[in-house]
Amino acid sequence: MDGAGDRAGTARPYRICLVCLGNICRSPMAEVVLRDVLERRGLGDVVVVDSAGTGGWHVGEPMDERAAATLAAAGYDGSRHRARRFEPEWFAERDLVLAMDRDNLRTLRRLAPEGADVRLLRSFDPDAPEDAEVPDPYYGGREGFVRVLEMIEAAAEGVAEHAARAVGRAPERR
Ligand code: 4NP
């Protein structure tokens, strides 16, 4: 058996890595939101989520203050994040790599081995246009971070459903 079916009933989790440029704004926000959705759906033990940046300028730093504040205002805790750079070896340890924008996607696809599952995060939002991005909020104002959070929340449910199918579990809705 191949595909989703061979995961059902096994101990191996489904592993998702969220990737942006700096790993201090968009992808760590997406990591926190997606983990929350997965936990609420009873998938926290079978789907593992992390994040990274394609660039290394901010490695070791906490989340951007505006990103953390936007999360906190919506009831999420982004305080534990420390930025990392995506390493090509990680493809072997991830089932799905989700890029925030098309630049990130291009960078990842250049690094990716054949068969790697690399997509745009917003491709999981049924209401988003084709090729929709989560735009870089770094040089803009606080309202850009609010928009980023809305886009992430709109896509996270679809990612959770995809992961639930991959592990052979229908998501538990609240
Ligand atoms: P992120 O935002 O990719 O969403 O983490 C950025 C963070 C830092 C920079 C660019 C984007 N930077 O140029 O340092």
Automatic annotation (TrEMBL):
Its EC number is 3.1.3.48. Belongs to the low molecular weight phosphotyrosine protein phosphatase family. Residues 14-162 form the Phosphotyrosine protein phosphatase I domain. The active site is at residues 20, 26, 136. This is protein-tyrosine-phosphatase. Pfam families: LMWPc. The keyword ATP-binding does not apply. One of its GO terms (molecular function) is protein tyrosine phosphatase activity. InterPro entries: LMW_PTPase, Ptyr_pPase, Ptyr_pPase_sf, Tyr_phospatase_low_mol_wt. It comes from Thermopolyspora flexuosa. Keywords: Hydrolase, Protein phosphatase.
